[in-house]
């Protein structure tokens, strides 16, 4: 059974700081890994998708890496802004007989002005 | 990115009644949709996998007779909470999966059973 762990559970940083969120998963047989953002009471917004054959993806101030063999991914946020405050969720897409998207518990990020 | 529309965004119903939640993929065809439930300050809990034209696959512990899922077309899946009770109050979110195995989520539905 796939299990996804995110560290830290919560993070508070001053505006402008660079930060790293961590995600680990137990079963390396994945199709892809996605990072999402969730604002309170809202749905999920897809940030980055990394296919299993890729090592990293970048979008603006965000950079996500994937090391499938070790079961790890990181989300790097550069020059953080108060608007980045949200919960960040990591999810892995597993295939075969266990076709599903499994989520970590998320990291609650607060960027202070 | 692709768009998934979920409706309604919130609903209040009386105990014992049924509520239907719709999930539509607006600009792509989703042969697979996932339905999740989220408790306050918790992560998403997968309830079931909805496959177009076939029966949904439910996760262990999820009552299939209580949470009816229909995926009649490539762009629409519905979740019906039957005979709702206060303990069914929660945030329900659907996800459509593109051909490239990328997940896009609806806005979520806040269900309150009184």
Describe this structure in words.
The complex is a heterodimer of chains A (about 110) and B (about 110). In chain A, about 0% of the residues lie in helices and about 60% in strands. Chain A is globular. Chain A has strands spanning about 5, 10-15, 20-25, 30-40, 45-50, 55-60, 60-65, 70-75, 85-95, 100-105, 105-110. Chain A is mainly β. Chain B contains no helices and 11 strands. Chain B has strands at about 5, 10-15, 20-25, 30-40, 45-50, 55-60, 65-75, 75-80, 90-95, 105, 110-114. In chain B, the strands form 2 sheets. In chain B, strands 2, 4, 5, 6, 9, 10 and 11 form a 7-stranded mixed beta sheet that branches. Chain B is globular and about 40 Å long. The model of chain B has no long low-confidence stretch (mean pLDDT about 95). The interface of A and B includes residues 42 and 106 of A.
Shape, per Cα inertia axes of chain B: globular
Q: Percentage of helical residues of chain A?
A: under 10%
Radius of gyration of chain A: 14 Å
Kindly provide the radius of gyration of chain B, computed on alpha-carbon positions and rounded to a whole number of angstroms. Answer: 13 Å
Distance from N terminus to C terminus of chain A (CA atoms, Å) equals 41 Å
Largest sheet of chain A: 6 strands, mixed
In DSSP terms (H or I, runs of 4 or more residues), the helix count of chain A works out at 0
Number of strands of chain B: 11
> With helices defined by DSSP (H or I, 4 residues minimum), what is the helix count of chain B?
0
Shape of chain A: globular
Query: Percent helix among the residues of chain B?
Result: under 10%
Largest interface: A-B, 22 and 22 residues
Sheet with the most strands, sense and barrel status of chain B: 7 strands, mixed
- Alpha-carbon distance between the termini of chain B? 37 Å
Class by helix and strand content of chain A?
Answer: mainly beta
